[in-house]
Amino acid sequence: MRAAIFYFSQTGNTRRVAEAMQEVLAVRAGSCALYRLEQADPAEILRYDLVGLGCPAFYFREPMNVKQFIQGLPVLSRQKQPAVFIFATHGGTPGAVLFRLKHLCLSKNLRTIGAFQCLGVDTFPPFADRRPQIAAGHPDDNDLARARQFAMDMLTAANDRGGQGQRDDIAVPLPARILSRLFSDRGLRRLARVGLLPRKIIIAQRCNRCGLCVQACPQGIIALRDLPVISELGCIYCYHCHRTCPREAMACNWRLFRIISGHYLRKYLANIFRRKNEKRS
Predict the structure, then answer these.
(1) SS3 24
(2) Residue-level pLDDT at 162
(3) Phi/psi zone of residue 252: left (φ > 0), alpha (ψ -120 to 50 degrees), beta?
(4) Percent of the residues in the chain that have a pLDDT greater than 70, as a whole number
(5) Neighbours of 213 (CB within 10 A)
(6) Which residue blocks in the chain are alpha helix, DSSP H?
(7) All domains of the chain, ordered by start, with CATH?
(8) CA 7, 11, 14 angle in degrees (round to 5)?
(9) Mean pLDDT score, 43-60
(10) pTM (two decimals)
(11) Axis crossing angle, helix 141-159 with helix 13-28, rounded to the nearest 10
(12) Are 39 and 32 in contact (CB under 8 A)?
């Protein structure tokens, strides 16, 4: 059976899960190709009998570039359908990411046979300093062991009547679906326009023009001139450029985002409970 996994990963969480799954499928299926989604052609999916699609949860849903990748597929006939499984990593709540991935696949007549999710340490800039972090240390050995078992189960399901013997059952609460819609492509751009998602400002005195932000951008929308120039058209608001700059030469003001998201309220309440516990002890 020809198998392949397509994944999008920035900090390595989803990549580690994809590699654990590939490790199993390469042995059990005979081979398994591994594609970074940014470098893959959607049409490559048609070459395989079993396909995995994986990504992190961004804003309670799939990243914009993952959506664009799936939308780049042709609508498939039943005769050409590979068996597809989906997987995601998330720093806290997965939101509706698996639900949305499933329905994006259905829009192309791709029927998913299974879904997997696990925690992955959150590196989103406004929340990366949260303590304690829900997903600290993840994906861990147990997560990767579950991913390997899941891959074996997907191979069995794909071999069972051509993948028709198993279907995923993704139950997502309605509030999570509504929340994910608020962060649609258009919604994220609207939040950026009003300043809730901060502008990326280059600090000339700190920038040494190393080009790491250009390499880090999954959309290829940063050009290195006298200073890095970012085209907001095509931005998926991952802030990976901001996160990876070794000289902190990209400034982003997260204050408004943290206020609206309850970050400061959470810290305030945590301090109150901590002081109460200290008095009791």
Answers:
(1) helix
(2) 52
(3) beta
(4) 96
(5) 24
(6) 13-28, 64-71, 97-106, 141-159, 174-182, 185-193, 212-216, 240-244, 255-260, 263-280
(7) 3-175 (3.40.50.360), 183-280 (3.30.70.20)
(8) 35
(9) 95
(10) 0.91
(11) 40
(12) no
